[in-house]
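To start, one record:
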Amino acid sequence: MHLSQRRYVGLVYVAPALLFVAAFVAYPVLRLFYLSLTSTSLLGGGVFVGWNNYLKAFRDETFWHALLFTLKYTACITPILMIGGFLLALLTAEPGRIARITRSVVFLPVVIGLGSSSILWVGLLDEQVGLVGRLLQDLRLVEQPPIWFVDADRGLWAVILTVVWKVIGFGMILFVAGIQSVGIDIHEAAMLDGAGYWQRVRYITLPLMTRTLLLTTLVSVIGSLLAFDQFYIMTAGGPRSETFTSVYWIYQNSFIYFKQGYGAALSIVLLAVVLLFSTLQMLLTRRGARA
């Protein structure tokens, strides 16, 4: 088979994936960008306004406050998910019945929908009938059950607690796969050289899990930057709109205020932020791996 024929065969194999990306990624993004250049309303109508929506977005204090809050949420929850998931993976990586049961129990909340888990935690955190407040009171950690969602910082950490419970099992499973991919002979050689457990984790396991670390971090960061369901259900953006996330404000403009053109412009800005963070993350990870 000639080289040109091989190229055509390769194109045939990747054609379904390219068509899928074009239909469900490229076209929607281009359509969204065009929509962001118009004054389209959910009720219909709209004209081409050029960059006016973007100029309005850069003057929108609520959007930038929401973006800063989203970045704060991302910066708080990502280390917890990464470190907690990795420690759980170390505890359950060794084969055995107890390890399998533990992994199953920790992973179980992952299969629950984020909306369903948020509704569940709203009940558990309720100051009158919630189990969490009663448990803290019985343990004499508080005198009265705390009211979680009247303060922005307390509400933020309440949401972080619920999301960690929900998704930490996903990171744990990824880390378990990464740990188990490291050859046993490498660990045995290190043990013969006198390396302790934490030395092997630091100098062998972590360097050989760079791709897993990158994947897990990217999933966590992107998921956090696009947070919506948990804040919509648990805090409703309150108090005083202090827990608005970027996606929440986009939703408000697009479906509550009927400003689809402006909502599309905000979406493009958020997409640019996500792409920027993802690119920086991959560059830093690759540089660390080479070093």
Notes: The mean pLDDT is 89.
